[in-house]
Design goal:
Layout: H1 3-30, E1 43-45, E2 51-53, H2 60-75, E3 77-84, E4 94-99, H3 119-125, E5 129-131, H4 133-138, H5 140-146, E6 162-168, E7 174-183, H6 190-265, H7 272-299, E8 309-312, H8 313-323, H9 325-331, E9 334-337, E10 342-345, H10 347-363, E11 371-378, E12 382-389, H11 421-431, E13 436-440, E14 446-453
Parallel strand pairs: 9-11
Antiparallel strand pairs: 1-2, 3-4, 3-7, 5-6, 6-7, 8-10, 11-12, 12-14, 13-14
Helix pairs in contact: 1-6, 2-6, 6-7, 8-10, 10-11
Length: 461
Amino acid sequence: MSTQQDLQQEVDHLTAELAERDKELAALRDQDHLDVSADRLPIIRLENQEVFNTYAAESFEDTLRVMAFRARQMLGAHQSAISYVPDGDFKAAVHAVSLSDKYARYRAYDVMPTGEGIWGLIVMHHRPVRMTEEALYSHPQFKNFSGLKTVEGLEHPPMPGWLAVPVLRKGGGLIGVIQLSDKFEGEFTDDDQEQLTKLATLYTPIFELQYVNDGLQRQAASLTQATLELQRSNAELEQFAYVASHDLQEPLRMVTSYLQLLERRYKDKLDQDAEEFIGFAVDGASRMQTLIQDLLTYSRVGTRGAAFEPTDCDEVLSRVLTNLEVAIEESGTEITCGTLPNIAVDASQLSQLLQNLIGNAIKFRGDNPPRIQIEAQRRDEDWLFSVSDNGIGIDPRHGERIFQVFQRLHGIGRYQGTGIGLAVCKKIAERHQGQIWVESEEGAGATFYFTIPNHLAAVSA
């Protein structure tokens, strides 16, 4: 399969997986897995007096705000903060804060944690941290945090006591942090820490889903960029094809013409060496022109193909055999064919594929006259075509190499061709969302297989 098709299939797969993840996230909200309080709270009134329905959270940030409120409500605290920190990276973090009316004037505070200060304790050790107000304000890492101010000069709210627990992925990596401060009554206890740790465990699936979604979206964006690069590359290839078909071939035609003119006009005045040199030059120019034409054919498989339309493959094969009639008669080739299907293909390209394979079977024949068998077998989702011969065969070590551009297993003088034919076959098979391969042993003939899906009717050029 071509890189372009690989990328498109991967993008489609990731898009479907993203949609599935969104469904899972919605299901978790619908089941109200986050409701760990004694009373069910489908409607929550946030501190800014907005009514928030937990079933209607439209974004991950909305979900975090509900989670922060519930954490504060469950343990009875005036402040809570919850942070989604993928792999401990605070540069990619998403934060939500919940403050009671006691800290109403601090709701505009928008300086988010950087992973340093006391947060660094959670990031470093991946375990809960609990401090009294005295211990907190005497901690050297807290001093840097407590002095933070917004552009408007608003300081971070006071923190009488602090309890924070990590949210860990199944593999152990840090994915989030839940913080509580200023308990309604007394200091945070071991029981509070245990409850908040359990809550973090309940929150983990939400963080995990977001983590997976982030990864899938990054991959999808990367694949989209790669697809754009491929499209740009294809446009450049199209431009090269134009240059090859015009600017490159014209000088070669001129060189060939003048060499032939020189040969005709001075034939009797040139010695045998000169005539031989001219012959070499004419042959080289001719081979170069053939090479350019074959490369042009290769480049146009993906850019100049026709639409996939219902096609009688028996008729396609019949035209191919007519085109090869002279070669078949001169070589004494015997060809047998099974019944071929009627499927949606680019008829011209299928003809080219079959003609290359059958032509190769005739070209690379052994001492005996060629015997070629052509078959097609219906499988679950595609048709498997095969072209078998009794020719010279191929060393299995070269089974993949022969489908690459300019790859020849024999010297130029022994067999005609530029080494592009099988590369064209591969590109045609891949454009039809199929594959092509060979099974062979040296000296024992070869069977080339290629597949074409049976669902291409709606695919255009």
